[in-house]
Design brief:
The protein has 70 residues and is mainly alpha-helical. Helix content is 86%, strand content 0%.
Length: 70
Amino acid sequence: MKMNGLDKLAYVLVVIGGLNWGLIGFFEWSFVDEIFSNSLARIIYGVVGIAALYMLLQIFMMMSKESKKS
């Protein structure tokens, strides 16, 4: 699978989001909240959520392509 720039950005954002959730779950500490102000952190969380939705769409598109091959 070849990734374009948007795919790579979404991948990085979702990984950052996952790591931040891991920190919250294990240590009750949010890296994003610690680094950024409250309003900027909310924007970052929103962008990470959009990236996750984009990646979910990519998964469904890949599944659709696979089902057409067989």
